[in-house]
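ASSEMBLY PREDICTION REQUEST
Request ID: AP-0331
Submitted by: J.K., bench scientist
Number of chains: two
Total residues: 590
Priority: normal
Notes: Please return the full assembly, not individual chains.
Input sequences:
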Amino acid sequence: MDRFSQLEFGEASPERKRSQGEPIRDADYFHREALKYWLAGDFELALRNYSRVLEKNSTVFDAWVGQVLMLIELGEYHEAAVWADKALELFPEHPELLAVKAVACYRDAKLEKAVAYSDNSISKDNITSRVWLARAEVLLNRRGQVADNCISKAVSIAGNIAPIIKLEAAHLLQKKGSYSAAIDYLNEVVKIFPKSALAWYELGCCQAKLGRSEARATFEQSLKLRPDWDRAKIALRKFNKRGFFSRLFKR
Amino acid sequence: MRCERCKFENIPGAKRCIKCGSALEIKPTAINVHPPRMSNWKKPFRNVLRWMRQGKIVPQQNIKLHFPLWMKGIFSDSFLGLFLSIIPGLAHLVQNRFKEIRWYFLAWLILILSGLFLYGSAAGFICLGLAVGVHAGIALQYGIIKDLANVREKIVTVILVLIGLMFIYRFIPDILFPNLVGGYSTLTLPYHNVEAGDYLLARGGLDQDILLPRGSLVLIHPATLTSHGGGVTRSEDAIIGEIVGLAGDELQITDSIFIVNGQQLDTEKYPVPQWLHRVNFSATIPVNNYFVSARYNVRAYGIKLESSHIRQVCFVKAGDIKAKAFMRWWPLSRRGFIR
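STATUS: Completed
Returned structure:
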């Protein structure tokens, strides 16, 4: 293979022959790729793949939602809200888009807007599990069991996307400080997605918070799946460097 | 035309789903499918703004203050807000209204920091004055100004709040920094990089039992001769002087040079003030006294300067030394710690 073999020459270039067994690069393929990168914790590449999905077929709703979610994960909340608005032009009043916009607003500390969007999303018909997850996140700091109930509801109606929802639910529970509950969900997720670096990383974070020594192995597993991941490296280093009192009191 | 979202079969050619309103036929070229991205330089600014927004409401922090009925009769919510606003923004923060005054708070913070940095100069006092004004604005904005319909009442309230805050601002430094005082130097001391008129910061609360070393710059209330040799009074305005002689030292002033115990002192470090230039003076410094060199007001009444006058003004009791200077504060170009 020479160094210019990967260059694209448009229509003028001779059509490269697809080798035997190579997947067809259609919307479904990029959707799978996006999910793969998401589970690997590489949100940037996941976002690009969602964009590729929409290049192929701009009516794929999950790709629009995925783009907004990836922007949120990348910390670009304003852009996520703008993009949710864009998606809402195509799918007006869709509860899931309203819900992800609520999450974007919440993470951007625009709490009144977040509550308003979440209220709006929950008032619609055909509520999906992500709507309940968004509700849980918006109400995460409320006293009582409101957020927990929303998370349980989200998981119960998740259907075939239950592992993904459980992963997100575990992340929320971790933010809430319910590490044991998060570990329960994450143990299920890593059984279904044993190659998900993100799931292992989240599991490791929860275990580390509880001071469990298996967190080291979990972080190492995450790094084994994605050796160049800085977040996991830092988490592992932090775990290894924890002080005497931290080890003593977090047992 | 099947809707992707609700799977409803629409009439061919329809642009939106009749059932759910979703777009049916979307030309890929017509839609930009690449989301906008945030520039890296925006990230810190966004983080700061987010941090400021977070100060406004968090649902579980929605604190409701409950007071007994009799207390409510005396103190309305506005008065309580005014009281809590002694710390700027506290009342708003408690009532989850911090967002309303966040820019005022930022302005107050900038003004107060600028005022402290430039303290001792006109600009510093202007900044502190403006900070008081902004603080009053924050306190009044909480509600009391809206409760008052009468313009005269509003003006009186504003004035009262301003006076109250000025009173607080006057005494807060004494509480926060009880031993910190300042004074203007009356001498030019090349060794200490101090010039006459410089404002120096000094640390008070000195232990009387600990002997201050020669060359220390100290804050004293300078003596002034009251009448023709009739005695001295100590001025209310403190100045900075330099300790030249310690208790028991034999001190002489000859040809504008200090000689202590027969040894000539460095004129860079111990310059003789102008008013002692033509004087020949010799004395033993009494116990529990210092010889403090400074520009004293000894000629205000036109009297002839005698050795007794010098003794009266320059011999300062250990208890009369209020503080020891540690920092050149003003002018800004010479700001720094004193050797």
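REVIEWER COMMENTS: Confidence is low (pLDDT under 50) at residues 10-15 of chain A.
SIGN-OFF: pending second reviewer
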